[in-house]
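SAMPLE LOG
Freezer: B-3
Tube label: C17
Construct: single chain, 309 aa
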Amino acid sequence: MLTKTSRHIPILLEPISDFLVEGLRNLPESAPKGVILDCTLGGGGHSASILAKMKAHPTLLKHCVMGLDRDPEAVARNRAKFSEEISKGQVEVVYSAFSDALKAVGDRPIYGLLADLGVSSDQIDSETRGFSFRFEGVLDMRMNPAAGESVAELLSEIHETALADMIWKYGEDRFSRKIARKIVDLRSRGALPKTSAELAEAIATVFPPAQRYKGIHPATRTFQALRIYVNDELGELEKLIREVFPRVAQGGHLAVLAFHSLEDRLVKEAFRTHELYDLPSRKAIQASDQEVEQNPRSRSAKLRFAIRK
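STRUCTURE (predicted):
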């Protein structure tokens, strides 16, 4: 069921919004109307903060914040949340994967770009979407429930070796072979788990008893791998880096928030090796101890800034 308000807490909110609005403020007054592109709108927290800072300098409001999301629930929430700003032309909310951002932008210049690559709390905390093993949700995990195959469909047909390779590649779980064997064995006996909680419990049995409930849950890495795979998250990011990043206008600011090493490695490599970008800092920015205490999901976040030459 769609919740009217988002429960997602935006991470590193002030540094991101300050950096992106600074890029707008550096533009000459004659700069044509353009957009700040929020590639993963989610709960709309970052876009709201960016817009609030733009309102503090009214001349910036000739530009708009364009938010994209491929989750129809997030799109519906944000169209309600920003209804007034949408009517004034200050915000556009687009139902789209960020790899298709250029279709929405058209020929307008992109003066700022934000890509928050994490899964939103609204998705994780949904009891029906299957992202979390805390609930008996169906095995789906698609960010866009209308596109692609669900985790349930994937597990019903994938070969054991391919499953093991996928868990290792995207989850880096050293028990990947045993986990794949367990899942395929359950499938052969007609006992394939039907919910997230059931799948997590099955995965836990593969681990030695002393490791099952010590530290992170044994299913965490497998769930990450399945989610990345069914949503083609790395393919989407590669297309964003290849096609959308270079379209940012000269002097435009880019901010990318990554949550695991696979994503961060791609972003770091793109920013450091490509001649298109200047780096305000070569090190990633991380949440403060205070922010982590208030929002534990910020612990793994790495924020990288770049400026288009």
